[in-house]
Every structure is written in structure tokens, then in C-alpha cells.
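Example 608.
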Amino acid sequence: MKKPNTKLHDVIGILCGVFLVAVLIWSIIAGNRTTTAGAADIPDDAVTMQGTAPGRNGPIVVEVTATEDTIYQIKVLEEEETEGIGSVAVDELPGMIYEAQSLQVDSIAGATVTSDAVKAAVVNALENAGFDPNVFMREVEAAAPVEKTDVELECDVVVVGAGGAGLTASVLATQEGQNVILLEKMPFVGGNSLRAEGGMNAADTKVEAELGITDSTVDNFVEDTLRLGHNLANPDLVRTLAENSAEAVDWLYSIDAPLPEVVATGGTSHKYLHKPEGGLPVGEYLVEKLKAQTEKLGVDVRVNTKATEILMENGQAVGVKAEDAEHNYTIHAKSVVLTTGGFGANFDLMASYDESLRNAVTTNHSGATGDGIAMAQAVGADTVDMEQIQLHPTVIQSDGTLVSESVRSHGAIIVNTEGKRFVNDLAGRDVVSQAELKQPDGYCFIIFDQHLQDEVALTQKFIDRGFTITGNTYEELAENMGLTGEAVQNFVNTMNTWNESVAKGVDEEFGRDNGMDADLSTAPYYAIKIAPGIHHTMGGIKINTNAEVIDTSGNVIPGLFAAGETTGGIHGGNRVGGNAVCDFIVFGRIAGKSASEFADSVALDNAA
Ligand code: ADP
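Predicted structure in complex with adenosine-5'-diphosphate:
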């Protein structure tokens, strides 16, 4: 028998390997991937046509091969959607549309903007091919019900909810030697944390020392957080937050997540807001870094898996029940960490505290339904400050997208439809939101210039998604904003007065004293229409400074820990911008550590 030419095989193998790596590197450099769905048997009369629609971060371009009643192939040629969220929809939707031969397929939960954009791009391609897209609006058959299998799992620590707090707690507990299962009910990790744009507040950090910032002390941080939170927060929790913030930043550096830039945030007296380099949105940045750590450390992360109940034995948490599409899980654990986020997408629950919020726009992801609070209450946990629901003053009403404080921290201002400023634009979120609610027409504008746009990378997406109004002069911008009559001149005056205030370093009108490093004099100028929207639920599960859950009699529930937005007591009546990220990193670490120590003590008891 002829021996295969092993040398030739090796060379071909190496060349193929090099080619694949080159393709991979190219696709990473190019910043998008090509997703293809469809069959090979394409008839001769099928037409191939491109279509496009705006996605969350930029245009989505597809190529569709179809006849008037059959789709044979869908390729996504271009996209810039957020890795881990929109990218899931980009990967899944073409196949789903092809399989169902319908555009009526469900959107990917939590990635509706991208899902809708993929569908709209396919519609556009069909139209460009001269086909009627309505033919593909066929009803989609419901999937047959699945008989679920019961599965028992075991681990040291089970963490429920893979947002910032859950990822942090999982990484920490794994670093401490625990075997961790992390459950996430959505198709991807990140939760609301992914949407955090500004930065992480921290006091007395090495980064600040290097930048020569000496007045950002733990005491100042505590005072600001309590004052801006209307003195409602639990001072012990706030002090724990502040005291552990510098170490938390060091820890982020140790897991390759540096935050080297420091600016002021809304209402605070000093600069605490630590940001990633180049103005990257902090949430996406940290979630990606934390997720990479879970992968590196081998955390068992299960998406599409929803926890439904905490398992208790003799008053102690010993695991959870959970489910995915095919299984009912009983997960036995030595300790349980709840990091399920807030309830800013649970309108019934919010309306039970404030009926006016029932139809409000929310910046929250659809999974923010307060599951952890309900699960904890079912085992006797107490809650605090549930009625404290924060409005954010700069929300784009059409889809709940947030314009983070960092845009104002870099110099943007807010004007009303009369072309006038009306508040210290960087006062607390509650103060600015309440002032906006008193303005005519129910909306306002946030204004910035090209200099700021160049400095703050995240503003690009507002331009790409068509949220910005532009003008080459203040007058032109005002007209494009829809201002008329006196309002146009008011706006021009407002801008000139503001630029003078920046030059003087004093805002005589409204007493703003930060985010005034640069004026707004570089054309073109930008405006985004904004109004207040539901942002953060500040109340939740009662915890102590060890992130242990407290029951309604004031006692610790052994084995049960909680961190992040699912807890209450840290923000009081108003959360400071940058404190949610600080909360999920600091208390995520504390919960991971406490749960780890508890798991060790259970292991010792079991061994004895
Ligand atoms: P935090 O900032 O406190 O980490 P996030 O909103 O970022 O809060 O993350 C909370 C995560 O918990 C979200 O990804 C959410 O989908 C997830 N989650 C909520 N309820 C459940 C549940 N019942 N089971 C599993 N994951 C859940």
C-alpha cells in the first residue's frame, strides 16, 4: 500500500492552519464577522441582493438569496454589534428566519434592537430584489412542548445572575479555590452592568495618586454618597463601599482591566470616576474582562438558565432550583450568592410603589425583573428602600438608550425647548430629572461640540444610530432642533454665555463647578433629544457589610449572600453616577469572599 506523503500533509496542514489564523485575525481586525444561514440547493431563478438597516452600533448589511416565496440563503456581511449581546442576534437570526421562512420569528431576548435590525435588513434586501416582504410575514409554528429532564448538580458556590456583581463574585470565589456554577437566565451575560457607560467611582486610589488628585478621600466619597442619596442609605454599607473601592480598582488592574482616567461625576464634590482608556463604555469593558476571567478560571457559566427558588435546609441556604429549555436543575451548593440585578423592567412591581412609572421608558434590560428579591423574600429575607426608584435625566425616549453623565462631565450642557439652560446640568440625577419634568414640552436637549465628540468615543454611536441633530452654527443647530422664534436667539445666547462661563471657570447662573474643562465652541455642534427615564432600583434585599442576607427579624440567613442592584441600602434615595459599578465590583468581591469562606466552613463541618 502506498504510504501517504506525510511531509506534504504536514505542509498542507500548516498552511491551512496559517490561513485559518489569518482569517480569524482579519475578522477581528475588521471588527465584524460573516454569519451565513441557508441551503446549498439554490435554483437558477433565485436572486441575490443586499439590504441594510441601522443596528445598535452601526449599519447591518445582509445579502439574501431568494425567490419570491422562498429564502435560500442569508449572509450578514457587515455589522458592529456589541460582542456578547447584539452579536448573539447576528449569529442566530439568519438561521431562524431561514428555518421558519418567516420574518415573524422571535427576537433574541435582550437584543431586540439588533434582532429588529437584522429583520429590517432582510426586508430591505427582499425589496431591493423586487420581492414583496409581506410574503415572508408567515405565522411561525410554536415549538412542540419539551418534556424536561431532571438533573442534579453539585458545586461549592452557586451564583445566580451573571451581571457585573455575579461575574465578580464568581471570579473571586473561584480565585479563592471554590468550584462555582454561575447561572444566567438571558442568552448572554452582562445584565444592566453592560449598559453602564461612565465609569467606576473609587476614592484614594493609586491611579488618582499618579494623576496628582489628592482630595478624593474615603471620607469625601462617603459624605457625597450619603448627601446625594438624601441621607437614606445605610452609612455602614456606604463606608464599606468607599473603603474597599481602591482595593477593588487594584484588583481590576490585576485581572487586566485598568481604569486609568479619572473625572468628576454628577453632583460629587471631587473626582472619583475611574474610566477605561479612550472613553470606552465602562460596562461593556468590565463585563468583557470579567467574562474572560471566568473562561480562564473555568467557571461553569450557564446562560439561558433561570433560577427559580432557593433551597433551604434547617434555615440555611443549600442551593437553588433552576431551569433551562430542556432541564429542571436541582443545584446543591455550600453557599448561594444572589446577584440578579434590579427590577427596572418589572413595571407591575415598580407601579406598586409609584403608579406613574407604569408606562415610563426604562434604560433597563428586559431581564431586570427582580427575581432575586422575590426568591430571597420567599425564604424570609427583608428588603429596604424598595420605593426608591431612580430616574436618569438623559434618556433617549425612542428606545431607552442612555446618554451617560460622562458626556456632561466632559462639558456637555442641557437646554430646554426655549433654548435655555435651567439647572446645574451636573447636579444629582434626581435634581436634574425633577427640573426637566418642569420644562415645557416634556423633553430637553443635551448639547456638545466636535471637540467633545472627538474626546468621548461613546458619542459616536449616537451619531451612527441617527440620534444626533447637527448644525455648523449655533443658529443652524437650534433650527434643526426645531426651535423657533425667540428660542433660536435664546439658544445662541445660552451657548455664548456658557462658553464665557467656562473661560471664567464660574457658572454664575446655575453654580455648576465641574465638567468645565473645555467650552463648546468647536463646530459642528450636536444635540440629542432627551428626557428622564427609569434607571436604577435602589432598594432591594437587605444585607450587612459582609454581603450576608438579613431576614425580617434582623438575623443573618446562613449560606445566603447578595450583591449589586438586587440589594438595597447602598444608594439611599438617589444613586450617584459611577456608584453602581463601584457597588457591583466592591460588593461582588465581598459576596464572593464571604460565600467562599462559608463554603469552606461547611466543608470543614462535613469533614468533621
Ligand atoms: P448587577 O449590576 O447587580 O450585577 P445586572 O443587571 O448587571 O446587575 O445583572 C443581573 C443579572 O442577573 C442579569 O444578567 C439578569 O439577566 C440575571 N438574572 C436575573 N434574574 C435571574 C434568574 N432568576 N436566574 C438567573 N439569572 C438571572
